[in-house]
Write a structure and sequence with these properties.
The protein is mainly beta. The protein is built from three helices and 39 strands.
Length: 692
């Protein structure tokens, strides 16, 4: 709120300058948001700048949106977001593999602004423990260091609030899904400087593929200390234990290119007597903020993560289907991962003016340490008859086809500076960052030979953006940004070159003055060099780099929460993606639709109506035609999926019923060298919660 002096006018008139209330500036970018429309983000600039004034594409999925769709995974959370394919490979309980602006999103997942490290895909973070999810599209290396040009996904954990609350719930659904949840907290005592929160979940469930487990135990204690309005320390911890296994890859001859003998979606290639998965993810972190004076604010965000996973499973070998058209060749995978990651981000923010220019300067230093100890083995395994499968042990393994033990340590240090400038209606963002990355360690193969994996890389990245905010809430902008990503040492393969990317983007944002909505349109041109992919060498998957990929696109997104009880989210994405180097020059990268669109609409009957408390929701997700591999030999048809929701809330009780893929469309989500995967069929989820 800005107040100005009262000016005496002739004739005794008193004229007051207007009092301007900017609600977006006062919104905590990590706090709960009522409805679907968030006004700020903690990801784009780390300063909580209003989205309207940020010269880059950002989407925020609030907790209300997550609950309306009853999303169970990060992929489901992202299913209605522009520029993002939430589940390009179908449902997979092991980890989430979204795609952002045409690039793999497994290595750009962040939790509370700090990167989740893993060489084979980020761990699957429990959605019930999240307050919101932010998607920053385009290069973000200036603020976050290593990352690809597609963008990043920042998951914000639930955190303590200084108001008492409690919630318990139960859920049941398709695939023998049973789950119990609890979430409660508040001030430790009346007028206390401390607030706590305890969030937890217990689940016993299966998956679309027969004999797969998706059980989970999750507990997340959190504590906030706020001795005064200028100082806050929040401790965020969580332990997640689960047992996910691999959905079955199936031969393309019996799925995508079937001549009548099409395998069912629940067909299981593995064996319950052999498959086993046991993993634990532990996070210990904190966020500290202190406003030193009217100019300076210091923040420190740190987390230690431990990821321990022992895994073995039978799956279809890369040789696929035998010539008889019914025998599936299989292999056995053993993987033992022990990963330790430490992240810390320190920054100092200064707010001041020079003449007519207002500055918000952010200076920071961050450090990341990743200890990667992974052993991977592939063995030949007995075949399986696709039309008369026989399960049960013992499983007699053949010769070992691959052994790789990687013991490496990746360290990265980055220093960055950013200046957000305001001059009348103009908004500019300028940033530079210097990164130094180092890998040390070795890789041992089956013959006992150890190869050095030592490498050193450094890179400067930058970002520049300019916007003009009209008084009516329209803000056109233009931006340019670059990215840099040292590639963690893969379980199979040697040292890889860092990937680099750059993007130019132009767009317009609109935030209405008299009702709660936010609209964006963006055109972009981005490219990445040394793109990472997986190829087959001697029958085994090996990480490799394919050269350069270029993506040009258009994104439209609208989100609104209206007083009449209507919430809506709509998105359209056009991507012209092309491989411009290597043997697949001119082809479209795998699993990237040229067109995709979505629309979600929810209506809640008002309190004065006969049906007060009842809500109806529904949505459509359209995924356009795409290719399953970089050679463009597997052509996947477009598909439109319908979702529906029904809810009722009264006196603290809330019951809901959600159906995904209402029409039970049977479609192949992806199909490539390692087989074909079905998209998820119809799933029905019922939930009952009690809040007080």
């Amino acid at each position: 709120m800005a107040a100005h002096p009262v000016h005496a006018q002739e004739g005794g008139e008193i004229k007051l300058d207007p009092i301007i209330i900017d609600g977006s500036r006062g919104e905590d970018p990590k706090a709960p948001v009522r409805g679907y429309v968030a006004k700020t983000s903690s990801s784009a600039t780390k300063t909580g700048k209003p989205l309207l004034e940020t010269p880059q594409s950002v989407s925020v999925i609030t907790k209300d949106q997550i609950e309306a769709k009853n999303a169970q995974t990060l992929g489901e959370v992202l299913g209605y977001t522009a520029g993002v394919s939430g589940e390009p490979f179908g449902p997979d309980p092991r980890f989430d593999s979204p795609n952002i602006r045409g690039f793999d999103g497994r290595q750009v997942q962040y939790l509370n602004g700090l990167k989740m490290m893993r060489t084979a895909g980020a761990p699957a973070v429990e959605v019930y423990g999240l307050e919101r999810v932010e998607v920053l599209r385009g290069p973000a290396s200036v603020m976050f260091g290593q990352g690809n040009p597609g963008g990043l996904i920042n998951m914000i954990s639930k955190r303590p609030v200084f108001e008492k609350f409690a919630e318990v719930g139960g859920q049941f659904g398709t695939h023998d899904y049973y789950q119990g949840t609890f979430d409660f907290g508040g001030p430790v005592a009346r007028d206390s400087d401390f607030a706590y929160r305890l969030t937890g979940l217990v689940r016993n469930a299966g998956e679309q593929t027969d004999s797969l487990d998706n059980d989970r135990y999750f507990i997340a204690p959190a504590l906030t200390w706020q001795p005064d309005k200028d100082t806050r320390l929040t401790i965020l911890t969580s332990v997640q234990h689960d047992n996910p296994s691999t959905p079955s890859a199936l031969p393309n001859e019996l799925t995508l290119n079937s001549a009548g003998n099409r395998l069912a979606r629940d067909f299981f290639v593995g064996d319950k007597s052999f498959d086993d998965s046991d993993r634990t993810l532990t996070n210990l972190g904190y966020e500290f903020e202190h406003r030193i004076d009217d100019t300076w604010t210091f923040r420190q965000n740190a987390r230690y993560s431990n990821f321990d996973w022992e895994y073995q499973a039978l799956g279809m070998a890369t040789a696929g289907l035998a010539p008889d058209g019914r025998t599936i060749r299989r292999n056995a995978t053993f993987q033992d991962e022990l990963l330790n990651t430490f992240n810390v981000d320190n920054n100092l923010q200064a707010e001041f003016t020079t003449g007519k220019l207002e500055h918000t300067v952010l200076m920071g230093l961050d450090y990341r340490y990743f200890d990667n100890d992974v052993t991977t083995e592939f063995w030949a395994a007995p075949t399986l008859d696709a039309f008369d499968p026989v399960y049960g042990g013992p499983i007699a393994l053949g010769p070992r086809t691959l052994y790789a033990k990687v013991d490496s340590r990746l360290t990265q240090v980055g220093v960055y500076i950013q200046d957000e400038l305001v001059l009348d209606n103009w908004r500019a963002t300028l940033g530079l960052r210097q990164d130094w990355a180092s890998t040390r360690g070795g890789s041992t193969d089956g013959s006992g030979v150890t190869r050095s994996l030592d490498s050193d890389d450094e890179k400067m990245t930058g970002r520049a953006g300019l916007a003009y905010v009209f008084d009516n809430g329209i803000a056109p902008y233009i931006s340019y940004a670059t990215s840099f990503e040292p590639v963690p040492v893969p379980a199979t393969g040697g040292v890889l070159e860092p990937t680099t990317g750059e993007q130019i983007e132009v767009g317009v944002k609109y935030q209405p003055e008299n009702w709660n909505g936010f609209f964006t349109a963006a055109l972009y041109d981005l490219r990445q060099k040394n793109v990472l992919t997986t190829v087959v060498v001697d029958g085994n998957p090996v990480s490799a780099q394919i050269g350069e990929v270029r993506v040009k696109g258009l994104e439209l997104e609208a989100v609104a929460s209206l007083a009449q009880g209507v919430d809506v989210r709509a998105a359209y994405t056009y991507m012209d993606a092309q491989i411009v180097e290597g043997p697949n020059d001119g082809n479209r990268p795998d699993n990237l639709p040229e067109h995709s669109a979505s629309l979600w609409l929810n209506y809640k009957f008002q309190e004065n109506s006969v049906l007060a408390g009842l809500s109806l929701g529904g949505g459509v997700r359209y995924i356009g035609q795409r290719y399953g591999n970089a050679t463009n030999t597997f052509d996947l048809d477009s598909v439109a999926l319908v979702d529906a929701a029904l809810g009722y809330e009264k006196n603290g009780y809330k019951a809901s019923l959600n159906v995904r893929n209402l029409a039970d469309k049977n479609y192949v989500s992806t199909c490539g060298t390692f087989g074909c995967y079905y998209g998820e069929g119809r799933t029905i989820m019922g939930k009952l919660t009690r809040s007080w």
